[in-house]
Amino acid sequence: LYLALYSSNMVDILNKEFEQVSKKQRVAYTKATSHIDALIGQVAKTKEACLSSSQDSQPMDVDLPPSSSSPLSPSLVSTTVQQNISELQKYINENYVLSRITAERKEYHQALSRFSKSLDKKLVSDLGKASQTSESPLDSRRLYAILAQHFVREGQFELADVFAKETNLPASQVLTVQRLYFEEAFSIASALRARRLGPALAWAERRRDSLTRIGSSIEFQIHRYRYLELLQNDLPQDDDEMKDSPSLLTGPKGALAYARKHLSEFVSTEAVEFQKLMGCLAYSDRLSTSPYKELCALSKILAQLTEQFVTDSCRLIGLSGESPLLAAFNAGAKALPVLLKMSEIISKNPDWSVAAKATGNELPVEIEGPEFNLHSIFVCPVSREQASAENPPILLTCGHVICKSSMDQAKGVRFKCPYCPIEQLSSSVRPLVL
Question: What is this structure's pTM?
Answer without folding.
Answer: 0.58
